[in-house]
Amino acid sequence: MKVLNLYAGIGGNRKLWEDVEVTAVEIEPEIAEIYQDNFPEDKMVIGDAHYFLLEHYKEYDFIWSSPPCPSHSRARFWSTKGDAFGVSPIYPDMLLYQEIIFLQNFAECLYCVENTISYYDPLIKPQSIGKHYLWANFRILAYRVKENSHHFDTLDGKQKYKGFDLSKYPGIDKRTILRNCVYPPFGKHILDCARGNTIKPLTEFMEANIRE
Known about the structure:
Shape: globular
Distance between the termini: 37 Å
Strand content: 15-25%
């Protein structure tokens, strides 16, 4: 299965994919380096995912896109209220909806556009699972991950939960990178739904990476 992984980050969504030939696109070289270290068999493109999609969308069986979410997020919206955080309002980045509309009308492959639940009513109706809005041309079955807050209290806890060790990468905002990283079993769940596979609980990953 040829997969285009846009706004790839360090590859949380991709971590548990199997039997795939992946092209990943990430604009930040230091983040692309981490992705490449974890998935050396993937083709890495350091560049603008938005324009790569426009030029190459016909070449893949499945497209995953996770455009930047801060301008849509409820957390950032709430932080603009009052003077406590000193955050100014910004326009929502409409690249998200450009890609959704484009894929809905031109893609002949399977696709999923993932983003955070927005502070406004979505302009195009998504599927909604947990903290995610998902625009896809296939049904994504219900999914729930049991999360305990103490797993996120420390950097080590975040790394274990997401299954990545960033200790050898200095000078990066590891907490933000991990926060933006899709939980790997959820990424696998979505690809399984796209393939029409039987969905099974992914307890093995949780047990290996989360310890009480």
